[in-house]
Design brief:
alpha+beta; 19% strand; single chain; 3 helices; 135 residues; HIT family, subunit A; binds adenosine monophosphate
């Protein structure tokens, strides 16, 4: 049986939402607590917990829908930037364990932040990391 999540209940209309899009692979809603108004979520129809569980075909489709929503935001909200974010698992800050892409409209000087303070590499460390992460 399917794992029930907040987003499966929203998908099925058991919890109200403001839907922007729906098909057999994913759906999109307005985030209830937006970073900026219009902040949308593109959510997998099936409750994959994270990007690793999601088939590539579904993920590619979700990104395509995120791109379309971002384009609508630029036209309709006149935003001049966006953040496209996936939080994977609680360590990253994921609160709802059901794969979703945040699409956040951004405006020059809006004062919002979605990225942390950055680190730097010690000598040679970046070369090692390159070897570790090459695919
Ligand atoms: P994350 O922290 O990546 O798991 O993001 C979960 C997002 O779901 C947050 O930005 C919440 O504001 C949003 N959220 C939680 N409950 C609802 C809801 N009922 N309707 C719409 N968005 C929601």
């Amino acid at each position: 049986m399917e794992n029930e999540t907040l987003f499966t209940k929203i998908r099925d209309g058991e919890i109200p939402s403001k839907k922007l899009y729906q098909d057999e692979l994913c759906f999109s809603i307005l985030d209830i607590n937006p970073i900026n108004k219009g902040h949308a979520l593109v959510i997998s129809a099936k409750p994959y917990k994270n990007i690793g569980e999601c088939p590539e075909e579904t993920l590619c489709h979700m990104i395509t829908i995120a791109k379309r929503i971002e384009s609508r935001m630029r036209d309709a909200l006149k935003c001049n930037g966006s953040n496209i974010i996936i939080n994977n698992d609680p360590a990253s800050g994921q609160e709802v364990p059901h794969l979703h892409i945040h699409v956040v409209p951004r405006y020059s000087g809006d004062g919002k932040t979605v990225v942390s303070r950055k680190e730097s590499y010690a000598d040679g460390e970046m070369d090692k990391m390159q070897e570790t992460l090459k695919i």
